[in-house]
Amino acid sequence: MASILKGQNITVTGGTGSIGGTIVRRALKEGAKSIKIFSNDENGLYELEEKLEKTNKLEFIIGDIRDEDSVRDALKKTNLVFHAAALKHVDRCELNPFETVSVNIIGTNNVAKASIKEKVKRVISISTDKAVNPIGVMGATKLVAEKLIMSEAYHQHSNTIFTSVRFGNVIDTRGSIIPRIENQIQHGGPITLTDRKMQRFFMTKEQAVDLIMSATRLAKGGEIFVLKMPLLRLEDLFDAIKQVIAPKYGFKPSQIKTKIIGVRPGEKFNEYLLNDYEMDHVLEMKDFFIIPPLQYITKNKYPGAKKPKSIHSYFENLKPIKKKEIIKIIKDVYLNQK
Fold first, then answer.
1. Taking burial as the number of CB atoms within 10 A of a residue's CB, which of 169, 210, 309, 335 is the most buried?
2. 9-168+203-228+272-311 has which fold?
C-alpha cells in the first residue's frame, strides 16, 4: 500500500515533541514533498534540525498555536496537518488552567480555522484517554479539543476532513516514565509511585504514529480513532523498569526502593478509552476502535470495520498484562533509544 504521506505537503504543530518528531521522521522516510515543523520551542527546533538529515524538504518555524496569524502562515500550501502541540502534563495543567485552556482549546481552534481558510485536505489532532470522563484540567481541555475537531464535520462549509486520535500514555516520550525513573535509579532511588494498584493504558511512539497514519487514510470527518492498547499496573511497570535499567548503574533491582506519593490533583486512579455513550456506537477494527460522529453513524463505511458484539465485556474482561511482557516492552524501547 502506498504511503498516505508520499508527495504531500505536511505541517506538524508541536513538531519538536516526541510524537511530532516521530511523525516528521516517518514523513521523511515515506517521501513527503515538504514538511513544516511548527513549534514555540526554539531550542527544540535547533536540536531536531541537528538530528535530522539535511534536506530542503524541511522548514523549521518558530510560532505559537495561540497566534492565529502565525498558524495561518505555517499552513499555507499544506495538504496534511498533524496537530500535536499541547500542554500534556496533568500536574502542570492543574496549576495553570488558563494557559492550558489557551493552548489546548484556543490553539486547537486556531489550527482548525486556519486549516479551513488554507484549504488543507486533512487535519489529524492528537488527543488522550484523559479526555474520557475527565476530572482534571488537562483531560477537560482535551475533551473540548476533541469536540472542536468533531464539530467541523457538522458544518459543511469546507472540504477539509478533521479527525482525532486518542492515545493512552506513550511510554517512550519526553517527560514520560522511563527517563524520569531512570534518573531516580541513577541516583540510587527511591523511585516515586503514585499508587501500587493504579492502572494505565500504554503504547509506544511507533504504535502512536501507526494509529495516526491509519486515521489519515480512513477518516471521513469527525471520528475519533482509539488504539487497542495493553493495560498495565504501574507497580508492575516500575518493577520492570528497575529490572531493565538498575544494572546499568551498578544496582541490583532489589536495592532500588519504591516510595508511594499518592494520586496527584487532576489524576484519575484508572483511565478509560471510551465513555458509555461511545461504547454504544463504536466500530471495531483489528488494532483499533473508531468512534464515528453522531450524525454519520450509519452514513460512513470503513473497510473492515464492524460493530463489536460486546464492547462492554471487552473492557470488563481486560486484564493487565504480565510483568514479563512489560519487561520485553521496556527492553525493546530502552535498547532502541540507546
1. 169
2. Rossmann fold (3.40.50)
Residue 108 host element (H or E) = helix 108-117
**Residue 151: what residue type?**
S
Helices (H), the chain: 18-29, 42-51, 68-74, 90-95, 97-101, 108-117, 137-151, 177-186, 205-218, 234-245, 276-281, 311-316, 323-337
Domain boundaries, the chain: 9-168+203-228+272-311
Q: What is the pLDDT along the chain (338 residues), one digit of tens a residue?
A: 568 999 999 999 999 999 999 999 999 999 999 999 999 999 999 999 999 989 999 999 999 999 999 999 999 999 999 999 999 999 999 999 999 999 999 999 999 999 999 999 999 999 999 999 999 999 999 999 999 999 987 776 778 999 999 998 888 777 677 788 889 999 998 999 888 888 999 988 889 999 999 999 999 999 999 999 999 999 999 999 999 999 999 999 999 999 999 888 888 888 889 998 899 889 999 999 999 887 654 555 788 889 888 888 788 888 999 999 999 988 887 766 65
Catalytic residue ranges: 130
Beta bridge partners of 203: 170
